[in-house]
């Protein structure tokens, strides 16, 4: 893979799961990694320690990515240390309820959509000036296969992430002439993440049975796709969505 040495990448929600695995992989490929977290400061610091132990560069920055002031402070801290952000991996997962529509209030559905889009809007606005100035940037959003393949009880998350995916397409159209690519990675069920508890053992086995590759995804499977989108090698893909689900989406 083409070198990305020295590029600065911000990974939101990077203290565990897909975010932490992505942070470690991008650091191993030569990027300077900003490990963003909201509450899990100890876990985020452990990610940074592991990156540095492997010879990489990383720093933690706490910020609620839904809050413009907090994001602005985060960008300022990074700028003082390393300059502008070249790559955004927006992975932070805002809270959501798991229940059928008939039992859901507008506040429960509407708040998830608002949180999802507010976070994407806020963090993207903050990183764009540096990308635009240099005429190069990579933006990757973490979506979910639930935005295309509904599953019972997941209407809040699936609807919010579907909005995020469409948002990314519009940005790809607008930002392409500025040398900035915008893409979405949509995993199916992933082991060892905060969302893994959503599937009980019986549901998990059904998902595995419906997957041609015969297992659920691991965080590393998703991180590898994110890493491609973040790299110099991705010179001509924008506005796309990568389904990382072992072939489950074919059905």
From TrEMBL:
Highest taxon listed in the record's lineage: Bacteria
InterPro entries linked: NAD(P)-bd_dom_sf (IPR036291), SDR (IPR050259), SDR_fam (IPR002347)
SUPFAM superfamilies: NAD(P)-binding Rossmann-fold domains
Family note: Belongs to the short-chain dehydrogenases/reductases (SDR) family.
Protein name, per record: Short-chain dehydrogenase
